[in-house]
Design a protein that fits this description.
Cytochrome-c3 Hydrogenase, Chain A, domain 2, about 290 residues, Rossmann fold, alpha/beta, 12 helices
């Protein structure tokens, strides 16, 4: 028998009352309230799942358990969900249909277009393979907002690096002219967890954020890494050695990484490789060629 999360929680509370078990009703109510929010459908294409892993490490504005239980309603994410096969694909399609025009579609990884998209299959529908390209083209126009998680989804990234025999493309290029709102690009390899979660919460609670010319929220991509780099004031800037901090917009030097802002690349004595730039992974530091 299949039941909804809401029914399960209602039965759990009823059982607790019958057994005289103390429950935190405020917590339960928060969980139930999450069911009324615009749900998240998260597709994974040509990538390493690094953006999902990064998101799981969020500590600001809150932790991932609080996010999934109290803040958002995640309907589909093949890495996180327990369902698989036909049940997972049914969940995907039913959720998109039920919440058409309301849900947020998150796309992680680039979208392969070569060989009719058959380089990346996300499942089967009635025994017929569903490609990532077909899924993005189907569910993108049905969503209220589309978010490209990470540089591969935003600009092609590593997955689309030359020679790109699989035809990996950005989400924006696939959905150009097909959505009511522009795709929100959250670039980074991987996307910063706070940027990912806070953007989803902003879309749910506030709406479309202000975007830069690369369709990234100016709230997070309005300043270069170099602007707040700790090495600028100490005379040890890596810009002359190929560091791309002066041309790379991201929150690395301000928010930092590693659970609650512990560190970042330059702090560990390595120049910025520009992983949130549209042209990544083309980089002096990655290729071994440095500018004078």
């Amino acid at each position: 028998m299949k039941i909804s999360r809401r029914d399960f929680l209602a039965w759990t509370v009823a059982a607790g009352v019958a057994l005289n078990v103390e429950f935190n009703l405020d917590h339960v109510n928060n969980v139930l309230a999450a069911e009324t929010d615009p749900p998240i459908i998260w597709l994974q294409g040509a990538g390493c799942s690094g953006c999902t892993v990064s998101t799981l490490n969020v500590t600001n504005p809150t932790t991932i358990d609080d996010v999934l239980l109290n803040k958002i309603s995640m309907k589909y994410n093949s890495t996180l969900m327990t369902a698989s096969g036909d049940l997972a694909m049914q969940t995907l399609d039913q959720s998109a249909t039920l919440y058409k025009g309301q849900f947020i579609l998150v796309v992680e990884g680039a979208v392969p277009t070569g060989a009719n998209g058959n380089y990346c299959l996300i499942g089967e529908v009635n025994g017929v393979p569903l490609t990532m390209q077909q899924a993005v083209l189907k569910y993108g126009p049905m969503a209220k907002y589309v978010v490209a998680a990470g540089t591969c989804a935003s600009f092609g990234g590593v997955a689309a690096a030359a020679p790109n025999a699989t035809g990996n493309s950005s989400v924006s290029s696939i959905l150009t002219g097909k959505t009511s709102n522009p795709v929100v690009n959250l670039s980074g390899c991987p996307v910063h967890p706070t940027v990912m979660i806070q953007t989803l919460l902003d879309l749910i609670l506030i709406g479309m954020p202000a975007l830069d010319t690369n369709q990234r929220p100016t709230k997070y991509f309005g300043a270069t890494v170099h602007a707040t780099c700790e090495r600028r004031d100490h005379g040890h800037c890596y810009a002359g050695e190929g560091c791309l901090g002066p041309e790379n917009q991201n929150v690395c030097s301000s928010m930092k990484w590693n659970n609650n802002g512990q560190s970042w690349c330059v702090h560990n004595n390595y120049g910025c490789i520009g992983c949130s730039n549209p042209k990544f992974p083309t980089s002096p530091l990655l290729s071994g060629h440095y500018d004078d």
